[in-house]
Amino acid sequence: MPNRFDDIKNQAAKVRQIKLVTVLQQIGAIADKNDPAKWHTHQGNLSLTGSKFFNWTKTVGGGGAIDLIMHLENIDFIQAVNWLTKNCACPVVPLSKETRHRPRTPLTLPKKNHQRLPQVNHYLTSCRCLPAVLLQSLIDDGRLYADNRANAIFLLLGKGKTVVGAEIRGTSHHPWHALAPGSRKDQGCFYIANGNS
What we know:
The protein is α+β, with helices and mostly antiparallel strands.
């Protein structure tokens, strides 16, 4: 009879297939403009070589998606496996008939709070080094807003620019990342269009 250890072992085998670039994109890391192997993260500057990474800021490295997210989020192995399973595109175990017909969680977006925008702006410009002009255009388009807890809310858009979910990023001293309940990453994404969209 399978136990929790077997479950984690099976999950780990699946998430090991995730590319490091996918993990970095998911946590909001920024690719270097001049060096495709270099990424800017909240833990410092990383270089990728295949499935290996090295953090030049902290002079530590590792290999694989599990090691990478453990390093970036300061979490243990089991937390890392669960994080990758939840947040990255992993192979999916076939669902039972009961699960397949279970109604999906309805999308619940965090409420907007314009008064918390300055904290979100400060975090994204100072800590994430995003251009203020870009942020303002996203705010004006309604693709980015602040909630009551001063989290940055990035809307996921599907066909016809329909809102299909939201990525939530904490802006405090302890970075964290989540999806709004009911988000459908299989049906859309957060994107920045070139030119008019």
